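Checklist before submission:
- one chain only
- standard amino acids only
- sequence pasted in full

Submission:
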Amino acid sequence: MRLVANLNEALANADVLEAVRRDPNSSLRAAYQLLIKRGTCFLPYVISNGLAFAPSRFIGYAQNNLDRHQANEHRNGSETNAALNHILQCKPVENAALDQLYREFCELIDITPSRAGAFGVPRKFWIVPQIADRLDQIAKAEVTSNPTISETEKEQLAKARIGQGAFRDNLIAKWKRCCMSGCEITSILRASHIKPWHVSNNQERLDVYNGLLLSPNMDALFDKGYVSFENDGTLLISHNIKREDLIMLGWKLDLNVKFEAQHAKYLQYHRSAIFIDPVRSPEKRRRKAAR
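Returned file contents:
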């Protein structure tokens, strides 16, 4: 079967799953439940009462349905993951909040979730912008309602979420200028988390080593994963952005940022979960392998 080539094809497959989910009397119900239970990598999507989850090995094949899926002896999660990575411009990552929401979804469709995905591999999820916003709101609500956190700390965490307060002040004190462009107009610089606020714990959300002081264009490219850094400060550039565009935006391709050892765990997260350099279309991978 052909792999999906665009987001609309993947979402059309999610609609196929939705039709079965909404019909408890469907003859395909058992096949659908098994598909969800055995999945490893999922695309979460919003439904009326929360989130639903579409597994990669189903939505990654064009014009799929449950009959075709069961007949497809060559279905391969690695191939569908690569196709979805290319389309979504991000990679699936482990996320405790989404895993809990997945478990709640399994209860909603009357199945007992497996402890992990296929072959015991941890479940992973594509965190597209709409889902990131949902996770951000969930994390914000958890902080607000937590009786063990003082009101002062809640205020600090809330301000750190939007790059303000003590988190910003500490970054300005540490970097004094944009750590990538050298711009010293601190009033326009953004206090950016390396590991996003919504996936960090409360200590990480306020940790100055989980932050960079960036000019707006630098912040946008780093946030979207078009650039990242090695622990030694070497700039990493995604294959998904032209070098000419980076230069026009003020980037120096030989840029090296002076990080400290405490930055390493956050940079590693950014490289593994946000940086989109490894994302290539399956077709390009096959052509490269055939050379």
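Reviewer check: Confidence is low (pLDDT under 50) at residues 279-291.
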